[in-house]
Amino acid sequence: MSKSIIAVLLILNIAFSANAVFLKKTNKAQFNVFSQLQSFEKSDFGKKLLDTIALQVQNDSGVSGLQKVAQLLEEIRLDLVRQQSDADAVHNAKEQECADTISNLDRCIADNTHQRDQAQAEIELLTAEIARLTAEISIKEVQLDILNSRENELDNARVRDAAEFQRRQQETPEVLAALELVIEKLQTIAPNTNDDSLVLAELAKIGSSNPILALVQVASTFSPEALTNVINKMSELHASIEASIEDDAKEEAEAINEYNQLKAEISTTRVNIQNSVADLKTQLQQNQNALSLQERILEEAISNIGRCQDEKLAKLAECEAARTFWAEEKESRTAELNIVKQVEAIIATKLDTIKDYLKERTEVSDE
Question: Higher-confidence residue: 156 or 52?
């Protein structure tokens, strides 16, 4: 309703502020119209409208006055129609805005729910992969410890074997020299016995105080055959020991070569394991970084779901309130429009009756 019309109605409401109209007299023909007009008095709008018409008729009861009333009613009716049209446009725009906003919020909830589910699945996979990599790294580190221990044992064994070899290399020439001396002494003895077993028995009795002298003393009692046999055995022992020196040196060289090969194998294995551990640790760090990212995504998705759900509930309440307000205003405006149309119809068809009603209404108000 335009501001000018509202102002007129407010002024007229003050001018005609009497309580409900009590009709002093009506005939049967007027009853229905009077009742209809009296029903308009129950609303503020209807009462103000009748006040306006009464004032206009009171000031000018001629044709021009009635034309002004008809024009005023038309303006009010058109204004109510315009107001409702504007309100409908605002309502439709609001409904569209509500639908768009709720659709966006539903999409926000759906997208973040999908992100949440994906993040939870990724976290489960990454957690399992991190556990696997951690276990595999531990196994590799144990392998390195075992390898280092094996290398230490190998080094210690090589040191012991080398020391033993050096000892043999020093002692064996001394044994050979002693054998050479014994053989030389034996070769100068004139034998007296043929029993070489007796010679050996006698050697066992002499002891170690001066074995070479004792051997010579005993050998002097040997027969030529026995002495020759002893000398031959000593010579064979000398040759055997002399050959063992070369064999020992060869075995030592082979042991050193085998040691070096094992050291090379251990070194290669260690490098391979260390490279594997480094690669596993790189993978572990990458998976831990990915896990941190997915945890942040999960936290953000859960937060967004809660925010969008809260905003949706607030928007639904806001839209419902706007919808209720529009419906109430429409109902009120429709009622006002119906009153205007009915008054226009009464003025157009039952002008005398409405004049009588307004006259009696004024008389009651004056009383």
Answer: 156
